[in-house]
Amino acid sequence: MSDPNAQYGFNSKIFPCATELAISLLSGRWKMTIIWKLRDGKKRYGELKSSIPGITHKMLAQQLRELEEIGILQRYVYPVVPPKVEYELTALGHGLTPILEQLDQWGEHFRLPERESLLSNR
């Protein structure tokens, strides 16, 4: 049972419960998708960009910076030309994997019928 007097904080913001803090830190359209894509290991910026349809360079860079600040992912910069940058989940980030897997299973309830079966019904 949680302590009713406990407070939680990050970057000088105070939250009355851990759930509110977690939702605040992970909110946004792309953060959970980025974490999901990194669950299997390191990825380069370009790999992430191409694996997330619709995300802009600006938004990907911003979301990656925020996730790094939180401590969910680690950024590796290699001193080569052209620059090589990779991203990987930290232990804190990997702690989200079971939660994301459960969300994935829950989301399967909303799977649309396969395109082939839709076309064959015409």
From TrEMBL:
Species this protein is from: Paenibacillus methanolicus
Domain HTH hxlR-type: 17-115
Alphabetized PROSITE patterns for the sequence: HTH_HXLR
Keyword Zinc-finger: no
Transmembrane segments: none
Gene Ontology MF terms in the entry: DNA binding
Domain of life assignment: Bacteria
UniProt protein name: DNA-binding HxlR family transcriptional regulator
Entries under InterPro entries matching the protein: HTH_HxlR, WH-like_DNA-bd_sf, WH_DNA-bd_sf
Pfam family, one: HxlR
Record flagged with keyword Coiled coil: no
Keywords recorded for this protein, A-Z: DNA-binding, Transcription, Transcription regulation
